[in-house]
Amino acid sequence: MAGGGEFEAKITPIVILSCMMAATGGLMFGYDIGVSGGVTSMPAFLKEFFPEVYRKTVEEEELDSNYCKYDNEKLQLFTSCLYLAGLIATFFASHITRRQGRRATMLISGFIFIAGVAFNAAAQNLAMLIIGRVLLGSGVGFANQAVPVFLSEIAPSQIRGALNILFQLNITLGILFSNLVNYATNKIKGGWGWRLSLGLGGLPALLLTLGAFMVVDTPNSLIERGHLEEGKVVLRKIRGIDNIEPEFLELLHASRVAKEVKHPFRNILKRKNRPQLVICIALQIFQQFTGINAIMFYAPVLFNTLGFKNDASLYSAVIIGAVNVVSTVVSIYSVDRLGRRILLLEAGVQMFLSQLVIAVIIGMKVKDHSEDLSKGYAVLVVVLVCIFVSAFAWSWGPLSWLIPSEIFPLETRSAGQSIAVCVNLLCTFVIAQAFLSMLCFFKFGIFLFFSGCVLLMSTFVLFLLPETKNVPLKR
């Protein structure tokens, strides 16, 4: 590992403020995760853009199975195309992050996202909706590339985990905000509430854009781009001490090594970088195959399928969003105390058991043409989903982003983050595009499928994942 022990540093206001502003990229991402599932359960939205689904759900057209109400490829494409666009955009974002800096990438992200919001809120047909979602996905790709790297590089190592998890905390806040907005706009008479839901996504994008104008770029990025004196000034400012020479010299050395690497994506495939690459890819795949985004994207749709009424399904999504936020705060307080591995392993047990019990309840009580779940069982399902979400929120949610940003050296960090974002968005696209069809095919077995994935990923952590708590960042 490059570098020795922990460098001297104070926890300065400029670091806290910069991290809070940058982490609003997560708020933007989270809002979009939550808002899509809410609007796709609104009758007015379905009637205008997805009339086939509207007939199945509202007019109660006869179905082979209640599990297949929302099984529609166009509806799934509305949700999933964002993540495919983000996957493609992250390759461009990696180049800009390295050549122009983390701050410039965040600015571009905000502008693109605002354009996507405008298209979606004003949509007159499905084509406008899809164009808007593609722009939103491009903004997400740029934000997910730059923000975790920015947070890891600017934070002192003793609180790096907590500050990095601000990104995930803002994702959960964005999901909760979108759930509250969906619940309120669904009550607006006239059937235009979905436009307000989609349009309010511009607020977090505006916050990220304004924040990117105000923050300084990281010393790592400035030195990497040849701005040595400016990098030294910024390093002294964010560390709050005069003795920044040891850290500066290491950054300078790392930058020289990084400049010798002309092809970072080719370099990352070298033998010395393979363990980090395998860990990075595995964490992103496992994060998505916990089933969390199936719940977050489609929570109202899922609850409607299980027999909840429209208002009740949106209200349940709000409860889940609140649990998600609170549990992410738990992670901020515990990640640098307990470590990464213990949180991942404990959460694996909790998620496995909760999904197993959900599968049993739904398998026994929700048949193809059954009546609604009784109130008692409906409440129990919501509680179990909250238990699952809480475990994810203090473990696999934030740590799947934190750990990759910690393990790569400077010369491959942007490439490594790009691969992490790419794999994550690819798996997210697959889940978003396939979930409603999987629900139709597997029925209650969908939860058994995801619980099996949780068991597999917990085994990976137990035997193959090293602890990165308090390990100085590879410069």
Automatic annotation (TrEMBL):
Keyword set, alphabetical order: Membrane, Sugar transport, Symport, Transmembrane, Transmembrane helix, Transport
Transmembrane segments: 12-31, 75-93, 105-123, 129-151, 163-184, 196-216, 277-301, 313-335, 342-364, 376-397, 418-438, 444-465
Domain of life: Eukaryota
GO CC terms, sorted: membrane
Compartments where located: Membrane
A Gene Ontology molecular function term of the record: symporter activity
Residue ranges constituting the Major facilitator superfamily (MFS) profile domain according to the UniProt record: 18-469
Entry keyword Membrane: yes
CDD domains in the cross-refs: MFS_STP
Pfam entry (one): Sugar_tr
Primary localization: membrane
Family annotation (PROSITE patterns): MFS, SUGAR_TRANSPORT_1
Its membrane topology: Multi-pass membrane protein
Protein's UniProt keywords contain Membrane: yes
PANTHER family tied to this protein: IP12678P (PTHR23500:SF357), SOLUTE CARRIER FAMILY 2, FACILITATED GLUCOSE TRANSPORTER (PTHR23500)
Family from the record: Belongs to the major facilitator superfamily. Sugar transporter (TC 2.A.1.1) family.
Descriptive protein name: Major facilitator superfamily (MFS) profile domain-containing protein
